[in-house]
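Justification of computing resources. Each target in the renewal requires a structure prediction run like the one illustrated here; the chain below, 106 residues long, is used simply to show the kind of job we budget for.
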Amino acid sequence: MSVDHVVVTTTVDSEAAARTIAASAIEARLAACAQIVGPITSVFRWEDEVQTAAEWRVECKTAADRSGALEEFLNVRHPYDLPEVIVTPIIGGSPRYLSWLVEETR
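Resulting structure tokens:
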């Protein structure tokens, strides 16, 4: 099965950073839209210690053929040394919405 649409997810340490990343990805036409969820509590191991932090999740909807460029864009602009960037396929949805998603990333 070929995947034509994906959600690219990252997390950042503030709502302001989330808004900046979301808006800049859309302005660059790498994402059609983005939702910001937060604050969320993240628990993770970093530098040999278990840490807990408040974060905001940014979920960018995009065409699959734009996901590599979006990942690179996020890695360059992200405030973290090792940003979370996860690409999840969209396997179905409203045909009109999915068409709009592709149009907005061109």
